[in-house]
Amino acid sequence: xxxxxxxxxxxxxxxxxxxxxxxxxxxxxxxxxxxxxxxxxxxxxxxxxxxxxxxxxxxxxxxxxxxxxxxxxxxxxxxxxxxxxxxxxxxxxxxxxxxxxxxxxxxxxxxxxxxxxxxxxxxxxxxxxxxxxxxxxxxxxxxxxxxxxxxxxxxxxxxxxxxxxxxxxxxxxxxxxxxxxxxxxxxxxxxxxxxxxxxxxxxxxxxxxxxxxxxxxxxxxxxxxxxxxxxxxxxxxxxxxxxxxxxxxxxxxxxxxxxxxxxxxxxxxxxxxxxxxxxxxxxxxxxxxxxxxxxxxxxxxxxxxxxxxxxxxxxxxxxxxxxxxxxxxxxxxxxxxxxxxxxxxxxxxxxxxxxxxxxxxxxxxxxxxxxxxxxxxxxxxxxxxxxxxx
Amino acid sequence: xxxxxxxxxxxxxxxxxxxxxxxxxxxxxxxxxxxxxxxxxxxxxxxxxxxxxxxxxxxxxxxxxxxxxxxxxxxxxx
Lengths: 390, 78
Fold this sequence. Notes:
The complex is a heterodimer of chains A (390) and B (78). Chain A is an all-alpha fold. Chain A contains 21 helices and 2 strands. Chain B has a domain at 1-44. Helices cover 91% and strands 0% of the residues of chain B.
């Protein structure tokens, strides 16, 4: 009889609490969004499943290892504990993913028209305005965010998953679940969020602007570029060096042409493996006490705001550049400055085609698009170096 | 405390945006400079591609080209 009682007390039904039930429902909700609606399935399937696993009462996925007073291992702890600490607390997974992204990125369109880098800078306005929004809400006493939390929320506006995870894991790990879910969901929503803003800020005539054909870029320029970028980062902003350094390394492997095997692994097998573990580890931070509160709602709202402001700032900057540039610039490519590669560039192309069926903006939009990746990594570096003191 | 937090936010915004723009503007400059140096002093790889692309166009002999042109004209005039 005692045995049966013990077994019952360890069963899921006996230990279940309201919070874990709701979080498991959230996990199933994420799986639904990923599988049925096709929202960033590569990330949301592991995150959703990780959320369910970690909220199973008594399974101990998130348990830390326990040592006795002498230092002998009493219980080794759970799988998610190790995945999280090895991969995310150390910053390793986001950096490996960034290396893979670097290996997938073609800087050709950017090198053909370097001034599109400015669009990538302008779109980062969203990040910093959102920081102000979070700080404002906190000052008014509506929600409780520290400056570190505010920086983590702002980085959602960078529309760059690995960057957001990197910054949040460094500055406020408790918000990681909410920030990562917001970042990846809004990236999936780029084709819905951006077009109304782009249409509202441009005239029909501006959307019809055709841009001059990009010049061909030599292999040598493409090989030198990652080293140039790395040199600038090393000299001006070392705090962005982890992200951009790995990015440049991946890109150099792609462009140098002598390590195709490494480049292939980085772009495919390695990034896939790391994505699985990254998703599970983010899911492991989706526990009821950290996710089910008003702050999460605030994060989702502020994240959407960050996206909208970033898009608008990019479009407005492109309009400004079009006024002063010798060659015409279609303002629609400005919105691609929010990274979210390559979705944002495709959106620019699609809206451009609606206005003028002969107008192919895709390659022109890829320039600001990869510039946005650099811009958000730079913003991440600034935030980490400025905020981590507090 | 609250004023302090707000001040931190403002600082972060100003310095952050400033750094992002300063960094990317210097990158724009560096890119232009790098492209100019490479296309001026090490231009082979660009030139090497040009003759390869030109080659197929010149292999069509003039009288065959005239025949093709005549056929296209006839097709268009229908």
